[in-house]
Predict the structure.
Amino acid sequence: MKRFLLLFSMIFSGLLFSQTQLNLIPYPQKVEFQKGEFIIPENFKLDQNLPKQETEYFKKHFSNLFNFMYGKKDEGIHLVNSLFPPKSINESQKKEKYSIEISSDRINISSNTDQGYFLALQTLIQLFEQYKDSGKIPAMKIEDEPKFAWRGMHLDVCRHFFTIEEVKQYIDYLAMYKLNTFHWHLTDDQGWRIEIKKYPKLTQIGSKRKESMIGAYVDNTFDGKPYGPYFYTQDQIKEVVKYATERHITVVPEIEMPGHALAALSAYPELACTKGPFESATKWGVFDDVFCPKDETFTFLQNVLDEVINLFPSQYIHIGGDECPKTRWKECAHCQELIKKNNLKDEHGLQSYFIHRIEKYVNSKGRKIIGWDEILEGGLAPNAAVMSWTGIKGGTEAAKSGHFAVMTPGSYCYFDHYQGDPQTEPNAFGGFTPLEKVYSYNPIPSELNAEQSKYILGVQANLWTEYILDFKQVQYMIFPRLFALSEVGWGTSKPENYKGFENRVVEHFKILDKMNINYAKSIYNISGKVIPNSNGVSYELSTSQDPSGIKFTIDGSEPKSNSATYQNPIPVSKEMTVKSAYFENGELKSAISSQNFSTSKTTGKKITLENQPSENYSFGGAFTLVDGIIGNVKQLGKTWLGFQGKDVVATIDLGEKTQFSEVYFNTLDNKGSWIHFAKSATISISDDGKNFKTVKEIGKDEILKAKGKINLKVGNQSAKFLKIKIENAGIIPAGNPGADSKAWLFVDEIGAQ
Ligand code: ACM
Ligand code: ZN
C-alpha cells in the first residue's frame, strides 16, 4: 500500500512540473523547480543595497502594478542580491553569470557584476509578466550564463535614418532579450550620419541625397524627394551611448572604408582616386568610387577615428571593409605606385595594406578593429576580428588562424530578408529567412575543433534598411526573429524543440502587443502545397498552429472567420484563386495567403528533366513546371527553377493521346543577377516517348520580342508525349554583370492547350 502511494505522488508531482512551462526567452541554462511558491506582495520590498540603476529599471517596468520600497535586511526583504561565493578567478570573471533562487518569502539573485544582476532582472521581469495575474511564482532555482560573449544586433541608419528616440527603443529590445552589442552602421554611400567636428562638410553635404530608390530594385524607380540632412550630433551620440551603457549594452560604431564611401567623397572629393565631383548615392548597391589610399586619406580617416574613439568606449571599432570594387585603384597612378613600392601582389594586397594601416592606428589608441569578411583579402591584419557575413567561410578561416570572429551569415542572420511568403510581406531585400531558420543556426562552424571554436566570439543579426522605410517596419523585420537570435546567442536553442520555442514566442507577442510593437505574424501563415491528383492537381493547406483555424475561399473573396474550414486538399479547376488565413477565436491571426492557379493539359502530369536545376533554385523539383502556378518575379526561390549553364530539357507524359494546338512557358531576364533569356526553344511530340518529331522551333529574336512569356501555336497536334528544349544563353558576354561566367536560365510552368 505504501509503495503504491509513493508511486502515485511521484506521478502527481511529475504532472505538476510538466504543466509549468516558463515563458522565458532566452531559455536559461538550468531551471530546477522546488516546493512551494512565492506570493507576489502588493508592497514589494527591495534590499536597499541593491545596485540602484538596474533596480530602478525593474521598478519602472512594474510601477503601475506593485508598490516598491527599499528596506533593511531585517524588514522582510523580498528581493536581495549577493555576490557569488568566490570559487575561482575564472568564475569571478564571468560577468554575465547569474542565479535566481525563488523561495516562499524572497527572491535571491546572485551575480558577480551589475551586468549579471541586470540580466537576472530581465529574467525576473519575464517571470513576473507570466505570473502577475495569478499573483504567485513557483519556487525554483535558475542558474544561468550565456554561451557567447557577443550577442549583437546591427542597424543601418544610412539607407534610412532613425531618430535617437527610435535607436533607444531598439536598444531597449536588445536589453529585454539579453543581447549585449549594438552595431551602429553610421556611414555608407547613401549618407554620412555622425557629426565629425573636424570635417563639418561630412554632415553638411554627406548627410543628404537628391532622392531615393523606391520599390523593387529591378524597377529602377526613384521618389524624386530630397532626403536629409539627417545625422546625429556628438551630444546625441553621447546620449545614446550612455543609455546603452545603463542597459549593459556595448555600442560598436561602424565607419566604412575603403568602399561604401560615396557620401564622404561627396563632401571631400580629394580623397578619391579621380577628381569627382561625387554625390551621395540615390540607388542601392555597390559603387566604384572609393577612398584612395593616399596619405591625405589616412590623415582624414585617423582624425575621424579619433573623434569616434572618444565617443564610443567599445573595445572594437568596426571599420567596414566590405564590397570595395578595385576598378578605380586599377586605373589610379598613385594606387599602382603604392602597390609597386610596397611589393603588394595586386589591388587585393592594397586592400590589405589599407586595413593593416588603419588597424595599426586603432591599436595605437588602445582599441581593436573588426571588419566584414573582405578584410581577409590579401591577408588579415594581426589583431583584427572578422564579421562573417557572406557565409561561414570567413569566420571559419579567421578562427583557424587564431583570430576572433562574429558569425552573421546572410542566410540565417540577415533580417532584411523575407520571413514569410513574399506575396503577403512588405517589399524586402530578397532571400528567405523565416523564424525557424534563424532558430536552427549554430554559430560554431562544424569543421572547427574545440580550441578553434573559442575564437567564435558570438553571433549577430543585421538589419540593412534599403527597403525599410520607417521604425514600424524595423520592428516588423526584427520581431519575432530577434527572439530566435537571442536564444541562439545564449546557447540554449535546440532546433528539435522548435515547436516549444514557437509556443513561447506566441506568449511574448502579448508583451509586444502591450508595448505597441509591430511584429511579423508569419508563424500563423498558411502554407500551401500543390499535389497531383487523377485529373490535375489539388491544393493542400497547412499551419503549424491548430489546423481547424484554417479558413479559405475559392471565389476571390477575403476569408473570414465564418468561411469554409479547411479539411481536405482543394481540387483545382482551370482558373482559380485560393485565399486562406488562420483564425483563432474568430480573430484573424495571419496574413491572407492568395494563390492563383492557371491549369492546362499538362497540369499534374508526369514530367522528367534531363538536367537537374541548381540546388538553391530547385523548389519543388520538375513538378514545379506543371503545378498550375505561374511564376511570380518576386519569388525566385519559389515557383521558378534555376539552371546555371544548363539547358532545360523536359518530357511530359500526358498519360494518353491528347489534343493541343498551343504550348506556353515562361522565362526570366535579370542581367544584374546573371539571369538571361533563353537562346532558343524546340518543341517536339511523340506517341512512344522514344521517337520525337519537331513541331516548332524558335530563336532568340522571338524570345526577346515575347519578353519571356512564350506562347506558341504548334498546329493541331495529338500526342501522348510532349518534349521541350529551352536553350541556356551560355557564357555571359562582356559588358554584363558576371561576364565570362555561366548564365542562369529561369523557367516556369510549361503548359499546353
Ligand atoms: C554586407 O552585407 N555588405 C556586409
Ligand atoms: Zn587611388
Observations:
- Residues 322-323, 372, 389 surround acetamide (ligand 1) (CB under 6 Å).
- Residues 114-131 form the longest helix (18 residues).
